[in-house]
Amino acid sequence: MNAGEIGIEAGRIFEYNLPSHWIFRSQEDQNDFGIDGEIELKDGSGKALGKESVFKVQIKGEENSTFIHDNSLLSFTLKTERLRYYFEFKVPVILVVVEITSEKIFWLPITNNAILRKKASNLIRMIQFKFISQLKIHWSEKT
C-alpha cells in the first residue's frame, strides 16, 4: 500500500471502532493538510454535550509498526513542526496511530502534555512517541 491508501484505511478502522455516542466530523481535505477530525461526545439520550466535550484527532496509519522494549511500546516518529502546530489549537488534540495490519488503535493526548511541550520547544527536527501497547483502544461496543 502507498501512504495515501494507508491513511484512508487507518481512517476507516478508526471510524468503525468509535462508540455510537461519539460524533465524528472529518476535517480532512483532499490534499491531507491540517487536522484529520473532530469528535464531540453525546450523553445517554443522544444529545451533544457541547464545547467541553469536543476534541480534535490526528490520525496516522502504519502498515507495519515498530515495537520496542520486548514489544511493550509502539514507537512512532513525528516532525516537531507538526507537534507545534497541534499545540496551537484551543481544544485538546489527540494523536491516534492505527496499526492497519492488526487494526489496533493507539492514542496519546498531546495538548496538555508538559513533556511534549518541552521537547517541541527544542530545536530537534523529529520527536519519537512511545505508546504503551496496553493502552491500545478498542472503543467499539461491537468487540
UniProtKB/TrEMBL annotation:
It comes from the Bacteria. InterPro entries: DUF4365. Pfam families: DUF4365. Residues 19-125 form the DUF4365 domain. This is DUF4365 domain-containing protein. It comes from Klebsiella pneumoniae.
